[in-house]
Queue: 4 jobs
Job 1
Amino acid sequence: MLLSIESSCDDSSIAITEIESLKLLFHKKISQNEEHSKYGGVVPELASRLHIEALPNILQNSSSFFKNIKAVAVTNTPGLSVTLLEGVAMAKALSISLNVPLIAVNHLKGHIYSLFIETKARFPFLTLLISGGHSQLIEVNNWNSFNVVISTLDDSLGESFDKVAKMLGLSYPGGAIIESLALNGDSYKYDFPVPLAYSSQIAFSFSGLKNSVRLAISKETVIDDEVRRNISASFQRVATEHLVMQLKRYLKTNKNRYPWLGIVGGVSANLYIRAKLTDLLTSFNMELFAPDIQYCSDNGAMIGRFGIELFNNKIFASLEDLKIMSRANLTN
Ligand code: KG4
Ligand code: ZN
């Protein structure tokens, strides 16, 4: 069995996966949303202190599996330094006490492998990573080959959802709140311009849309629930139109190369986005796959799933070499 630890931001999570069958035997996650909500975003120092309480608690619940653990995998990049350190310190201590090797997992690859929790990976495919930190379209041609073909010029999609929520006086993280408010809003009430619609550039960009939202809010005399619903619906529609437009541009020049697209990362939990992407892919004869909602946001199961690929390929990290890195891309 593989024990895996995730602590790159504000979720403390540990999973235990059976290496051969890929079966998830144990998975627990403690989120810190409520604690950070008061401050309108993640406070790294507070996150670190909360991990120190949560991780040992979760670990204790998994102790019956310790005798069968063959390796310990941990997120070492990218993320907040002070929170990555908590998971890595725990992983190193476990590696010494259980006398098993360490595996360093890139959080972004973990998100991509959330598509394969309890199932075998199949290649090639395209994946759209849309989270709080990233917005990228990636070609995945084999188990460890990730080619970023579209990235963002400025903000990530998740961050934009969170900023819009903040502007509307909603709590953090705002993505799921915006999605549910949008259900009863008029998505054409505000005609925000679709970013890069009049340029041929194939890239993501959300800062202009965020500014349009800010301007629209400043013109309202009162921010009541109706305004919140309509802004949420209009923002979500335009952000999604932008995603779909850029994907379509990419797919037009890369026809029939990939049979399916997987969406991963916190924002991939959004059902409106899933539906619009499904419509687009159908016209290209492609299928959409998405993880179970519980595996979209940060979790230990996805770290374990990519950890198993590294284990099977005998890619281990030594106690001395396993370092944290706050920034990384898919080549790390
Ligand atoms: O993947 P994740 O948990 O953390 C990072 O690695 O960044 O993603 C968190 C992001 C937040 O910005 C959150 O607002 C967004 O995912 N999110 C959503 C939804 N659920 C979470 N955004 C839109 N719709 C949702 N339903
Ligand atoms: Zn993440």
Job 2
Amino acid sequence: MKQKHIIVIEDEKDILDVLEYNLKREGFRVSTSSDGKAGLNMVRQDKPDLVLLDIMLPEIDGLEICRILKNESSTRAIPIIMVTAKEEESDVVLGLGLGADDYVTKPFSPKELIARIKAMLRRSNETDKTGSSSVITLGPLQIDPEKYSVKLSNQTLNLTRTEFRILYKLTSQPGRVFSREQLMQDAMGEHVVVSDRNIDVHIRAIRKSLGEHQKLVETVRNVGYRLKDNFDQGL
Ligand code: CA
């Protein structure tokens, strides 16, 4: 199997060393950059399989790098996991809104991060192959799993891969309640430990994309989420 290449952009040397050590031990090829500008150019040139991206960086910050990479056709498909030192949700939401595929908050356990990376690479692989799932149409929503595309009243929504997976799961059985764990496991792959907050952030981003139709995704208190199954009311 071809060795997967990961680029880590991180300016804190201690964290960079830990990441590099753990990733190499898992058999990944690792390149590192400690400033945003050099890191951005490295990704553009090398087209790695995945990018680990710190938010606070010299030269160009991580959010801007994410925005640039997700806007360029040659780098758009490369999964990005944001690594954020701040607990502030606003940064995370902003990052996911710019197209980042996942995030971890420092301090993180290398083991969990590796699991998340593997899940992301696996999904990224699956996406390359032709999916067998069919297009779902529900009220104003049209979801095409092969193209990873969601249309709302014929307008294409800009969802991240993770958001797409969550929404696809919800629309696969409208009215059924899914727990946070179920949604995250489906979106992120099995054996991945995720916090409740993680799914809530993704749901918030999905609702934001749905705009006036955001009530389609309902919160079921203490349980999880479901997709509204009555499309005649309240849309
Ligand atoms: Ca930093």
Job 3
Amino acid sequence: MSKADLHLHSNKSDGILSPEEVVLQAAKLGLAAISLTDHDTVEGISEALNAGTRYGVRVVPGIELNTSADNGELHILGYYICHTDTRLLDALKNIKEARVQRVRAIVKKLNGLGFEITFDQVLKKAGKADSMGRPHIARLLMEKSYVSTVKEAFEKYIGYGGPAYVERHKLLPREVITLIKNCGGVPVLAHPGILSSSHYIDLCIREGIQGIEAYHSRHTEEQAAVFREIARRHDLIVTGGSDCHGEFKFDGKMLMGRYTVDARAVDRLKEAAAGNGVCMKGMYNHFKS
Ligand code: AMP
Ligand code: ZN
Ligand code: FE
Ligand code: FE
């Protein structure tokens, strides 16, 4: 079976590898297809597409957008988005700005708790990232030996409910689903197994989600089976991916490529994207209306 890992992050958001390195690694692992799904940014897409051509890996342009639902967070993947669409880029610009403001606010709270860090130091830690986030703060806290793991930083300080937690304005699931469809993409519910409530799945289905990520590094096989069944009942595309941020597991092997879906899912995504009314001239460039 040809395998596809359709959930990967690069250093354009909070991953470690560059987009090219992600694709090179995928080629080494023998993956037929991947999608780069960085948080709230499409900055890495061109580089990944070019690398895909060079290394013989099918690359699906993607994104992962966080939304807020009630008190929880819900992540939505967008596949075959047009990464040059101006409406998408405008929306991402606003999100990027909100992320910067949030990091500033978190740094201030951490200063209040006695941590000697600055916004510029986080910026440096974010390096080439287009969308900065809490993982960059966590890595700085680690570098300064305030915590020993990223997980500890989240659990003690910057995670939801922590003393340095700051809320960020997020779009609603409906808004993100519309945004993705409007730029030619296929919206897919990310890692439903880590949602705080299963009613979010129904909500996404009502709002027009077109796929569900059944296979994920944080799903059990039983959960994957439940999500496949939901997909069957609601005619959703089944997708899957490792959600690898460039990390190695305790056994020294990379997370990438361990949680995959049959690469035929890529054809279904492409068909759905075409069905959403976007001109699929060439593979990715379509005319904007
Ligand atoms: P942000 O985008 O700034 O809200 O940060 C959220 C990101 O941080 C997620 O997408 C994960 O990659 C990472 N993250 C969230 N919670 C944890 C945790 N407990 N331990 C490690 N990383 C986390
Ligand atoms: Zn992440
Ligand atoms: Fe996510
Ligand atoms: Fe992710």
Job 4
Amino acid sequence: MLEATPLSEGWVLLHEEGELPAMVPGCVHTDLLAAGVIPDPFLGRNESEVAWVGRREWTYETDLHAGSGHEQTDLVFDGLDTAAEVLLDGQPLGRTRNMHRSYRFDVTGVEGRLAVRFASAYAEAEAVRGRVGERPAAYAEPYPYLRKMACSFGWDWGPTLVTAGIWRPVRLERWSTARIARVRPVVTVECGEGVVELHVEVERTRVEAHLAVEAAVGGVRARAEIDGTAGTVRLRVPDAGLWWPRGYGEQPLYDVELTLLHDAGALDVWRRRIGFRTVSLDTSADARGTGFTLAVNGERLFARGVNWIPDDVFPSRITRERYRERLRQAAAAGVDLVRVWGGGIYESEDFYDACDELGLLVWQDFPFACAAYPEEQPLRGEVEAEARENVVRLMPHPSLVLWNGNNENLWGFRDWGWEGRLGGDSWGEGYYLGLLPRVVAELDPARPYTAGSPWSGSWAHHPNDPAHGTHHSWEVWNREDYAGYRRQVPRFVAEFGWQAPPAYATLRRALPGEELAPDSPGMLHHQKADDGNGKLRRGLARHFAVPEGDFDRWHYLTQVNQARAVAAGIEHWRSHWPVCAGTVVWQLNDCWPVTSWAAVDGDGREKPLYHELRRLYADRLPTVRVRGGGLVLAAVNQAPEPWAGAARLRRMSVDGEVLGEGTVPFRADRRAVADVPVPRELEPVGAKEFLVADVRGGDDPQALRALYFPSPDREIPYPRPEFDVTVAPGAVTVTAHTLVRDLLLQADRLQPEARADRGLVTLLPGERVTIGVRGWETPDPDAARAALYCLEPIR
Ligand code: BMA
């Protein structure tokens, strides 16, 4: 039987003055940090001080005892970052140049000092650039010339911390006769039966040995012979429970076990967990253009998505628990689709395992982002090898529903001046429209592929044409106001978003000793977007009076504005289902403490946007829309049952006076939207008035509320807010005496670890809310009051 032994002990990192203990898996930065050689690059402006690390060569060493008792011993690296030479007692075993691949070396019978010598990623990428020629890119860093996580070189939310190291596990595998080299599971559902086809490849030391494989899943067993080095086992599981995305059904998972057998017994075992479901992507043309609708088990769905970036710029630090926590946060916000963005990585098993269990659909980008990518060697061969390996590695996961060729590269070619600058040079089209779809069709035929995001389906339309396929909506953040989202009904919004600073406690930790101001040195350093603060300020000024010299108020208002912006997009787009079939918010998470588009900040704290997502992504969302010169209440119902009941409408003034009231019945079919006209006399007029819609279906435990203010906040004469605050262990209760809009308890100001269970709440006079607070040991009403923010009268 194959024996696998981790090789994680005894590693050292060679350093100018000697050697340091090294973590494997790990990376140079985290080893230097642990040894006190560098300061924490996440704090203050230390990032700049450690830039030298990415420019050096680094060597890791340990002792290797291949041992015996077996015919062959392999040294297996699940991941090396990136350009490295592997040596044994100074003799080369091999070279690597791709972070996204694993590597295996035959070390049978050898002993000695194992060294992994990493070149600087800059040196390697620049050398390749020298050979293949320069290509246009969104950032002036050499990420298109090396198969390495692109955002390691910095991004508009990420630091430039160019890593090196043994970033995934290493082990020795000792085996005799044969081992399982690859299992490619094609999982489908046919007439209610779960079908698994396991395509097995083996590696042999003995050509003549008679080999077979036996597989088991869901109580069913099957056997097949290995002919040469390949064989296929097919299993049919009657009455297989279907795997559904969360909110649509259960997530039954089945253990699959495949054993490689020789006369004498078992040689090797492969174990994975699978789920039975079908997935399709409908991109057919219709009267509005070209759709982009995912269907799981035949159920067409509006994807409630978020974009995912590497959760740490040092990905070797992300534990299984941390993946689970971040994805649990996504699921708890009502998210059902996570897009793994192409400037990052093919994530670890821990990520996809959590998605399988939580019922989160995964859209996986191939790692290409925001650049023209050369197609010459050595890159082309690396791209094919990495795609083949990762497609097969990730295939078992039922959560994975879509492969995507790249992020914004088809768009960039057409729109960002690349086409002219390239002058006929390769730029990646051959990957996205040739190589990658071929690899997916050959290896993973049961999963859809799309060439890029955004992409209109062909060159017949502009790649970012909202009427065709996927769309990225960035003009709104970059140049316009978020009211601009309402101008279009794209078929699928794969990116859109708005920035806000992280939680106060996150800033406090990241910028020790700094007197915080929107433009204080650390704040500016932790803002990586082009004119980011200018866009924040202009975006804020369109809605609110920008507070001068009051950081706390600025911090609160920019966070409110972020939530408002994303709400403006999602409420509008969901109300246009099924024309629009998904929104993927840029972005769920961060990779360090930074002002960014994230809903969950770099320390894992939830911004007000996060809580707003729970409302926006709930199965049932009432929203007031302007349609054809009047107002309608759109009842968005993504639940499997119809939603019917009555909406109580109140036309109110901000002073609390009810100016008109009425009740209208509504009925939205299952997974459908119903527009209910708001009676003319209840439409609010002018800056002082607003509409309150309390919408309650027959079975709903309580009403859901939609608010509609016709004027921008900066014109609304909000009253001076008056409210009482009481505290109890784990709770803060606020009772309003006036209209209190966008009340927010910043729990991390009570105590850095404290968390509130809700974000922005608007109370009408006389209404009360109880905010649950975890991790606050000394409840005190004055402290609670000081941590409460809400909108105030215009000064
Ligand atoms: C899109 C993304 C990212 C970027 C984000 C915000 O371009 O694909 O590259 O971080 O917008 O600018």
